[in-house]
Specification:
Oligomer: single chain
Number of strands: 4
Radius of gyration: 14 Å
Structural class: alpha+beta
Largest sheet: 4 strands, antiparallel
CATH class: Alpha Beta
Number of domains: 1
CATH topology: Alpha-Beta Plaits
Order of helices and strands: EHHEEHEH
Number of helices: 4
Pfam families: GYD
Protein name: GYD family protein
InterPro entries: GYD/TTHA1554 (IPR014845)
CATH architecture: 2-Layer Sandwich
Strand order of the largest sheet: 2-3-1-4
């Protein structure tokens, strides 16, 4: 499976939803799992962003489909990056 980092920022609508229902975070993680995206780790970020997620999916197509689904809801804006474990990178250079 491919790993990604997703950095997200809540929209005003997303902040209102989260205030009313903090468990919504876990609900969204379950919805992502149904789309084939596993949230491996999740952090609240103090600063310019609200959340940093380490996620995995089968490929770029799967993650793109999931991100578009999330964005279409209007509650977050994201930046998603493909990441490669350092050991894999080193091996690819040999």
């Amino acid at each position: 499976m491919a790993r990604f980092i997703m950095i997200s920022t809540l929209t005003d609508e997303g902040a209102r939803t989260l205030k009313k229902n903090p468990e919504r975070i876990r609900e969204v993680n379950s919805e992502l799992k149904e789309m084939g995206i596993n949230v491996l780790e999740q952090f609240v970020v103090l600063g310019n962003f609200d959340f940093l997620n380490i996620i995995e999916a089968d490929d770029n197509t799967a993650i793109t489909k999931g991100v578009v689904e999330l964005l279409s809801r209007g509650s977050i804006r994201t930046a998603t990056y493909r990441v490669i474990p350092v050991n894999d990178f080193i091996e690819s250079l040999k």
